[in-house]
Amino acid sequence: MRNIKFFDTTLRDGEQSAGVNLNLQEKLEIARQLERLRVDIIEAGFPASSKGDFAAVKQIAETVRTCSVTGLSRSVRSDIDAAWEALKGGAEPRLHLFIATSPIHMVHKLRMTPEQVIEAAVEAVKYAKRFFPIVQWSAEDACRSERPFLAKIVAEVIKAGASVINIPDTVGYITPKEYGEIFLYLQNNVPNIEKVSLSAHCHDDLGMAVVNSLAAIEHGATQVECTINGIGERAGNAALEEIAVALHIRKDYYQVETRLNLQEIKRTSNLVSKLTGVVVPPNKAVVGKNAFAHESGIHQDGVLKEKTTYEIISPELVGVPSNSMVLGKHSGRHALRNRVEELGYTLSEEEINQLFVRFKELADKKKDITDDDLVALIFEEKFDHFNEFYQLSSIQVQYGTNQIPTAVVVLKDGKGNEIQEAATGAGSVEALYNTLERCFQTAVTLLDYRIESVGGGRDALAQVFVKVRVNDVETSGRGTAQDVLEASAKAYIHAMNRAVMIEAMRGENEKVATT
Ligand SMILES: [Zn+2]
Question: How many CB atoms lie within 10 A of CB 490?
């Protein structure tokens, strides 16, 4: 059976989703989880695009040992140099070079003739080969490129040393049949094609990213590029979990193998959703909340008698836990640490100690601490307080049906100042947010506000997600607390802290970002 490689680009293409910006800590956690999922290649970022991306790619390359780590690069030496600096500590450094090959892109974006594009591509591959053992070359907007030209440039970059050729459907335009034909065309018209592996990269603008990727596999591709939960530019990329499970369940048809550990799918999906703030729709294939829920009486009856009557994927296959472990007031530090490890999180001794304190506090108020509660606490401990400028000291909110809601907030800022403000609003959350805005002394536009409970029950934790715009930075934040107002305040402060960090990094970025 052919082996299909999974190239995960959650941290590069996925991170390009509107409103998603992950910090170093969060990217590292996702990379570790992708390693557990056993993807073959992790695209960790675009090193030349910003200092933040550079640092993240470097750290991921140095941390991940059992996957190849790659970074994106334009066909210019300064990008390749930056990528090598970031990736050289990796277990198997690999460069992802690209240049546009469609007439639209060559004329309007690159302002280069087709001959100049070939020259630049060849020159970049040759230069990259001085450093990188593996160079992957991508023809940006390949699907709207002229096939003879595509075949010509592919032959040239293979001669120059590329070992993987990626054919991206950058704008999400192709249909499965046409996409398959492009792969066949290249295999029939590029003389040295057997020297390389072919890769698919699809976008979901027409809802065909997954099916196009599968069509590519049927027509000779041995690598697929995808993201967890299908996040990415515009309508997103092909969803890794959907391709992976389709190949597994229909192995009889596709006749291919992968090295993925499918049981890590659900956990990876949850982690990416929580850290990016991008919700997984309940009806989403494989990872949606309802993906395994049988609602119709006839279906329920059938499944109870024999699961396979209506269930083609078992929840256990993708790691949906059948029973959630419960910790309580009397659980000790040891039990907590074991559970945290079983849930797949890596915490330092100090983080475990902090978590234990939070856990005990919660256990005093809430009888059963479920895995979901624990994950919420881990997030608070591990990610939400990372690099924070503003810290919440206290809030007080007054609300009554016959009075004007009023909030008082005390914050500490990164310079050690204590800030205290008060304001009113039409509702208690608005009063709180008006007060916080005064504390920040910056206009903040609230784009989205979402509240959910962690699990069921009256004593459940509240989790608030917000999306905000601060100046021209769009970012998200989350907060967890037993009280909805406290969770709301934390989410807003978390978003503001991210905005502060993005703005601080931006100043340093300008030099490297433009070419
Ligand atoms: Zn893409």
Answer: 24
HEC letters along 133-163: CEEEEEEECHHHCCHHHHHHHHHHHHHHCCC
Q: Are 102 and 117 in contact (CB under 8 A)?
A: no
Q: Which helix (H) or strand (E) holds 85?
A: helix 77-87
Q: What is the pLDDT of residue 423?
A: 97
Q: How far, in Å, from the CA of 49 to the mean position of ligand 1?
A: 15
Residue 481 host element (H or E): strand 473-481
Tell me how far apart the terminal alpha carbons of the chain are, to the nearest angstrom: 44
Closest CA to 245 of 316, 304, 302, 168: 316
CA of 14 to the centre of ligand 1 (A): 8
pTM greater than 0.85 (yes/no): yes
* Ligand 1 centroid – CA 265 distance (Å): 21
What pLDDT was estimated at residue 322?
Answer: 65
128 membership: H or E segment, kind and range: helix 114-129
The pLDDT score that the predictor gives to residue 72 is: 97
- How far, in Å, is the centroid of ligand 1 from the Cα of 432? 39
Q: How far is CA 51 from CA 86, 506, 508, in A?
A: 11, 8, 7
If you measure from the C-alpha of residue 227 to the centroid of ligand 1, how many angstroms do you get, rounded to a whole number?
Answer: 10
Q: What is the DSSP letter of 107?
A: I
Mean of per-residue pLDDT scores for the chain? 92
Q: What is the pLDDT of residue 434?
A: 97
Burial class (CB in 10 A: 0-12, 13-18, 19+), 209: buried
**376 within 8 A of 461, measured Cβ to Cβ:** yes
Spell out, as residue ranges, where the chain has pLDDT lower than 70: 322-325, 386, 507-515
The answer to whether the CB of 95 falls within 8 A of the CB of 83 is yes
